[in-house]
Automatic annotation (TrEMBL):
Gene3D superfamilies: 3.40.50.2300. The keyword Transport applies. InterPro entries: BCAA_transport, Leu-bd, Peripla_BP_I. Keywords: Amino-acid transport, Signal, Transport. CDD domains: PBP1_SBP-like. This is Branched-chain amino acid transport system substrate-binding protein. Belongs to the leucine-binding protein family. Residues 1-24 form the signal peptide. GO terms for biological process: amino acid transport. Residues 26-373 form the Leucine-binding protein domain.
Amino acid sequence: MKKFTKLGAVSALSLIIGASSAFAETIKVAFIDPLSGPFASTGANGLKQFEFAADYMVNDKGGLLDGAEIEIIAFDNKTSPKESLIQLQVAIDQGARYVTQGNGSAVALALTEAIDKHNRRNPDSRVLFLNYAAVDPALTNEQCNFWHFRFDANSDMKMDALTDVIAANEDVKKVYIIGQDYSFGKAVSDAANSMLKAKRPDIEVVGDELHPIGKVKDFTPYSRKIIASGADAVISGNWGADMLGLGKSVIENGFTGPIYTYYAAGSGMTAAFGETGKGIIRLVSEGVVNPSPSPEATAYYDAFLAKYPDANIDQTRISNTIGMLAAAITEAGTADDVVAVAGALENMEYDSIWGSKLVMRPDDHQLIQNINVSAHTNEGVKYTFDSSDYGVVKESTVEMASADIATSCKMKRP
């Protein structure tokens, strides 16, 4: 198994550079995510994190191989699968051989299918899909392909960790499940129902519904149903404006139990929840910033804040994505041959600065890593979000979560 430790694999690249980056071609990574519309803040914050990771981990250290720098090229997909396919073609035409996306599994499913078709028809311009946040389990199960790599834990893996925490909370007798009406929201619902039944059959699911994605302006009707149900806890996979709108409405309508979430931090949400979210909002995530897990993580975050004082790192998997890509390109000795780069990524073991060993499982290209559950608070917070006094602090960790989880992936290799 190939092993790479924290930033060391990338830092060491400066020792093998043979040409100035001024004379080297750039390695183009197309960032296809929402930069306008209701989820623009989520996409814009992710873009900053990708641009910083590319500079800090690669470009500022001399680049890769012959000095080539990683260039992040942004494309606004407006959270639309159709628009994403248009932007994918534009990106390929501009020479991008790596595509990253994360906001919306419906988009990811459209992209992975299109990239698979493109690569079969165009062997001279193949593309790798670096999925940093779209977590529908289908992407590494029945919809898997060789060109897709997921750097986030899938929704089943995260729900496994969340339901461990819920099962241990004896005060939770009734749960309300609510999410966005698309593939990811349905996957969260299915996993929550099955895992709660297996771990705590006494827990009653008193509500299970989906709402239109990005279209609900007032969540009051949903909040009133949650309150009326007598739920002790809420589970939601909502993200962006939908998470903020739902969470604020539920709390403002008097709910005081835990709200277990996937994406209820950063991008303006932490500041908006403020004191009202303390003791209520819980977040499942793959990385941890409070407490800082390593000196390297502290240095990285401090450098990020020096460049973007009004932003925050709410997706540690972004730097993992860039770090592992850089290590794979170095291992393969090329950025142009994406088959060779994919081969280097497969089965790679990488020590993240964020406190976890990472293993890219070759069977389905799903990254295996630690999963944490954190609480929204203003206590013990070094790195706050949204220029507020609040952030998230780790409460528990499941090490190498769901490492033995089954996959139905039947991958065809080139």
